[in-house]
Design goal:
156 residues, Glutaredoxin, globular
């Protein structure tokens, strides 16, 4: 997994609504880049809703939110509409970007081992440098953890 202090790798992915988004589009802004396993699952819904509910505070801290999963754009469109998400969801079906960031790895569930998204969040500063990594995120109160870091950055 990438570490704080390193330059965030640039990427371009298909976004909900049919366009494309590149990380470099956001130079000059802070970015909350979060990787999640699957649309319409309980943990991912909880996480997305917490970012939605805190979205205005995140914007006020000078940041944008980008969610990334292997799901299709069509799946993202439905998920975004269903939950009224005000931020972009990006499709990484071949998990190339997740691998770049170290958010793709071995997971275990019910005694089975498989490869999948390791739920993680990266806070990237205005110059494209990673300032904070949250590996193996627990969804409860995660958006508040992100806000705490953004607030500390704003105070610095």
């Amino acid at each position: 997994m990438l570490e704080a202090g390193t330059q965030a790798p640039d990427f371009t992915l298909a976004a909900d609504g049919g366009g494309e988004v590149s990380l470099s589009d956001y130079l000059g802004k802070k970015v909350v880049l979060y990787f999640y396993p699957k649309d319409n699952t309980s943990g991912c819904t909880t996480e997305a809703c917490s970012f939605r509910d805190d979205h205005m505070r995140i914007l006020a801290a000078g940041a944008v939110v980008l969610g990334v999963s292997p799901d299709s754009v069509k799946s993202h469109d439905g998920f975004k509409l269903k939950l009224s998400l005000p931020f972009a969801l990006l499709s990484d079906p071949d998990h190339e970007v997740a691998e770049l960031y170290g958010a793709w790895g071995e997971k275990k569930m019910y005694g089975n081992t498989y490869m999948g998204i390791v739920r993680s969040t990266f806070i990237i500063d205005e110059t494209g440098r990673i300032v904070k990594v949250f590996p193996k995120v627990r969804v409860k109160n995660h958006s508040q953890e992100v806000l705490d870091v953004l607030g500390a950055q704003a105070a610095a």
